[in-house]
Structure formats: structure tokens, C-alpha cells
Design brief:
mainly alpha; 70% helix; Phage protein
Length: 165
């Protein structure tokens, strides 16, 4: 029988020595952040509408009156708090939505990716050493010239052997 255990998905946030509890499962939190990020991503203009949207979003995320408690002047800091909370909410959401089997697969993939990265670094080091040897000793040109022209001795034997058959 499948047993599913559901836990509270909350985390605490400390801002200016004030501690707030955020529920990562609350859909209104995700909707408020999604609205803010879509509407104001890359925006550097502080308008009355921007300030009102920040107030509303902070109050949804941290609780009613949190904006007035935290911010005395209107600037970009509330938006930075919203972006930081968005990242943390996303992390908690992904953690809660990932099963143990998925986590094992993800860990295995991360390990394989790390191994491939190490191999790539080693190949890069070998390439650098080859370039160094080429500059210092000209080894690359010597090897390439030997590969381009095979020995005449063996070349002639193979033609004679073909004619005998």
C-alpha cells in the first residue's frame, strides 16, 4: 500500500530583525510573485503602481502590514525582497514536489555530470600540454608528417602480394 505523508512546507524569513513565516504551499504566494516578476522584471522605474504592487505582494507573502513594518521609504528594496522570496519559494516547492526516487535519479545525474566535467577538464589539460610540447619541441608537426607518408618498404610489399594472388 502506498503511504503518502504530507508535511507543512513553511520557512522563516528574517528581515531587519523581524521574523516572518512563509507558507510555500500557499497558491496566493506563488500567484503574487508570478505577477510581480512578469510585470516588473528588468524595470528600474519606481512608479506609484510599482510601489502599490510591491506593498500588496509583500503583505500577501509576509502577512498584512508587513510592508509598513519593514520599509519606511519607497525604493527598490521591496522588489529585491520579493525576488529573494521567489527563489526561496521555488526551492521549497521543488523540494516538496520531488519524490525520493526522483531525488535518487537527480543525484545520480549530478554525479555523472560531475564525472563528465572532470573528464572534460582532464582532456583540456592534455590539450594544453600538447600545445606546449608543440610550441617547445614541434612534436605535433613531426607526428603528423610521419602519419601522412607511410614507409615505401611496406607499401611495395603489399602491391607485390596482391599481384601474386
Amino acid at each position: 500500500m502506498l503511504k503518502i505523508e504530507l508535511q507543512e512546507n513553511t520557512f522563516d524569513v528574517e528581515i531587519y530583525e523581524n521574523v516572518f513565516t512563509v507558507n510555500a504551499d500557499d497558491i496566493s504566494n506563488h500567484q503574487a510573485i508570478d505577477y510581480m516578476l512578469k510585470k516588473y522584471r528588468g524595470n528600474r522605474n519606481i512608479t506609484d503602481e510599482f510601489i502599490d504592487d510591491c506593498k500588496e505582494c509583500i503583505d500577501i507573502l509576509l502577512g498584512e502590514g508587513a510592508y509598513k513594518q519593514l520599509f519606511k521609504i519607497d525604493d527598490m528594496k521591496p522588489y529585491y525582497v520579493i525576488v529573494a522570496l521567489a527563489e526561496e519559494l521555488q526551492e521549497h516547492f521543488e523540494k516538496a514536489a520531488t519524490t525520493e526516487k526522483q531525488q535518487v535519479k537527480q543525484n545520480k545525474l549530478k554525479e555523472e555530470l560531475n564525472n563528465l566535467t572532470e573528464i572534460s577538464k582532464e582532456m583540456s589539460n592534455i590539450n594544453k600540454q600538447m600545445e606546449y610540447a608543440n610550441k617547445k619541441y614541434g612534436m605535433k608537426n613531426y607526428v603528423n608528417s610521419r602519419q601522412k607518408r607511410p614507409s615505401k618498404k611496406y607499401n611495395n610489399k603489399s602491391k607485390k602480394d596482391r599481384n601474386k594472388n
